[in-house]
Amino acid sequence: MIPALVFSLLLVPATPASPPVPVNQPQPPVPTVLTQPKETSAALKETPPAHKETPVPVAAPVPVVDPEPVETPPAPVEIPDAAYPVKSISLPEVLARGISHNRGLREAGLKILTSRATIRATSAMFDTQLSANLNGVSQESEFVPGNVFSVTSVKKYSFDAQIARLLPTGGMVALQFSTSRMDQTMTLAMGGPPTEMESKAFTNAFTFVFSHPLLAGFGRDVTTAATQKARIQLDADRLSREAKAQALVRDLVISYWNLWLYWQEQDLLAVSLKVAKSQLGLTKSLLTVGRAKPSDLLAVQNAVAQREGDLMLSRIRILQASLAIKSQLDLPLEEEPMLLRPADKDLPFVAKSLPAELVASVLKRSRDLAMLEKHLELLRQEEKIAREGLLPKLNVTLTAGPTGTSNEYSAAWESLVKFSGFTITGGLSFSWSVEQTQARATLEILDLNAQNLRLQKENLSNGLVMAVMLSREMMQTAQKRVELARLAVESAEAHLQLENNLFALGRGTNHSVLLRLAELDVARLSQVKAVYDYWTAWVQIQALAGDILNEYQLKLQD
Questions:
Q1: What angle do CA 375, 381, 383 make, to 5 degrees?
Q2: Is the dihedral of CA 472, 473, 475, 476 positive or negative?
Q3: Which of 38, 242, 371, 525 is the S-S candidate for 31 at Cβ 3.0 to 4.6 Å?
Q4: Strands annotated E in 121-189
């Protein structure tokens, strides 16, 4: 902050007859580096008036020998608000809009919904399966002379149903029911004319079916592999979305305070321009009474022009930062207002403490590392399935159940209920790929992919360690710079006051005053820039440690 006395002598009139207009001193904004005034060329340097013992009266000043430099009026620098309206925004508004409207986060949310649907789809293999068939067959043929007997007509109607379910260990159990009716006409020729005999048969059966693999395909790891992979993918998608959200919040916070810094820089330039114009008026007054040189006027005119140009460049930087935030928030870039301004006026310095095991905490809580670990877990699940291809297939099948057959439908049911007939079958099936080419190639590919992921994880860990160490060092250095910049501001203010005193007494030049003014601007900018760097490093550490969403009380909706 600039004390009121810094520019007191700067604003003191040279003589009581012509007091300069005092300049109000606004709140000091973020400083910017100012171009130092150039040295006046030898051709433009003025020879001071000849020294006389008696002072020159104000009413009749001694004419200057050399012609005075032509005064160039400063060009207007401020862009009208009507051309570039300004909208005030707050950091909570920016973060809320970014979380809810960012396209990348919406895409990540859709991936999570897809993974959830995939989990439900993979569990469908354990659903109860119900199937049924209804068939009818009718066959007619002519009796062939010379044959002893021949079936000339067959009509068969059958219905069967099955309910089956997959076992968690890979087997299958089913209960089958079948019923059929067959009408048959047989023609007999036993040395006489052909005679027809009709027969009717009803058959009912209940059958229990059990089938199970004994080698390849046996166990819960096989049957639940697809579901486990889908669950792991869901976790990976959640980690990916959270990592994107943390990076988005980090970028938005930094962009917000970057915009704030540019506005502070412009405010400082505006204050510096007012001070330079005030110095210009004072210099003109002193030049009129012979207590300043024309080179002093040239120097202050140069300083005014430089500050006006810096103000124009500052407005471009503000526009660029505003457009960057609009792009991050998915706002129309060409829509008014073009310029955004942070609602926060100050960025106070508050010392933060870092945990002793910061690096270990970052590596443990990194969402990117956790996501790579999930991908490795996916490969381990695929490896389990691939190793099943190295085993031979040996399956056992067992069926058992009562049957009932009769020429009457009721009698067939009675025979079924009484277990008059019972059927049991069993069997083993075996198959094996001798070369196992596909299984071995699949395992090799999975192993190479796992090695690649482990390398990525190692590289990412090294990158995180470097980022944490740099951010911590930047944070600690910025904290020291804040104190050093405060001392520099105090020193620059005192130095500027001294040069103002000398200039007011006619013992100094505008070159020295403007140089000290530029030094004060640089010191102020260094002070606020140190605070900005401190909070930027803190935001980086919060994002690396996975705490930035909690820091700003943000939650992601599933």
A1: 105
A2: positive
A3: 525
A4: 129-140, 149-166, 172-188
Give the SS3 label for residue 529.
helix
Residue from 471, 514, 412, 40 nearest 201 by CA: 412
Tokens of 532: 């900005």
Amino acid at 315: R
What span, in angstroms and rounded, lies between the C-alpha atoms of 541 and 475? 9
Sign of the dihedral defined by the CA atoms of residues 440, 446, 450, 452, in that order? positive
* Lookup: tokens for 81: 């608000």
CATH number for the 86-112+233-374+451-551 domain, one of 3.30.43.10, 3.40.50.150, 1.20.1600.10, 2.30.40.10? 1.20.1600.10
* Cα 134 from Cα 428, distance rounded (Å): 30
End-to-end CA gap in the chain: 47
Which distant-in-sequence residues (6+ apart) come within 8 Å of 276 by Cβ? 300, 303, 304, 307, 514, 517
In 10 A of CB 191, how many CB atoms? 5
CA 248 – CA 549 distance, rounded (Å): 10
- Select from 529, 501, 505 the least CA-distant residue to 516: 501
- Helix (H), strand (E), coil (C) string for 253-318: HHHHHHHHHHHHHHHHHHHHHHHHHHHHHHHHHHHHCCCCCHHHHHHHHHHHHHHHHHHHHHHHHH
| 261-to-30, 266, 267 alpha-carbon distances in Å | 7, 9, 10
Dihedrals phi, psi of 430, to nearest 5 degrees: -135, 135
**Mean pLDDT, each 10-residue run in order, the chain (558 residues):** 34 36 36 35 35 36 37 41 73 91 90 94 92 93 77 90 94 95 84 80 94 91 91 95 94 93 87 83 82 82 88 91 89 86 83 85 92 95 91 94 90 88 93 90 96 96 95 92 90 86 76 81 86 91 90 84
Residues 6+ apart with CB under 8 A from 505: none
User: Cα–Cα distance between 32 and 304 in angstroms, integer?
Assistant: 15
